[in-house]
Recover the amino acids of this structure.
């Protein structure tokens, strides 16, 4: 199973391929607030993926539309509720929604 590394704390969790980044982040015990789990509606789960982006599922139209509406988006941006991990390890960087 691929490893998901979560920055800035550096937590590492092993999750099955096909799992969303959001579920993997939650499995690692990171706390965050979203209003719209799994629906790509608010963009509150915006993360950067500095390593392993090619291992993720391709962004669909709904995700791209949400990302287009957000500030601070880069080529490393994904919505954690939409991106599913593949067979390779991935590193994500939590942005403003991460806490405690
Ligand atoms: S949880 Fe709302 S866009 Fe991902």
């Amino acid at each position: 199973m691929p490893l998901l590394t979560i920055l800035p704390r550096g937590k590492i969790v092993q999750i099955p391929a096909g799992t969303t980044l959001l579920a993997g982040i939650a499995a690692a015990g990171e706390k965050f607030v979203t209003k719209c789990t799994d629906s790509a509606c608010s963009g509150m789960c915006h993360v950067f993926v500095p390593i392993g982006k090619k291992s993720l599922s391709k962004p669909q139209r709904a995700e791209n539309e949400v990302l287009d509406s957000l500030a601070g988006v880069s080529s490393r941006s994904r919505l954690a509720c939409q991106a599913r991990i593949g067979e390779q390890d991935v590193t994500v960087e939590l942005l403003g929604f991460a806490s405690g």
Summary: The domain at 3-99 is CATH 3.10.20.30 (Ubiquitin-like (UB roll)). The chain has one domain: 3-99. The radius of gyration is 12 Å. Residues 34, 36-37, 40-45, 66, 79, 81 surround FE2/S2 (inorganic) cluster (CB under 6 Å).
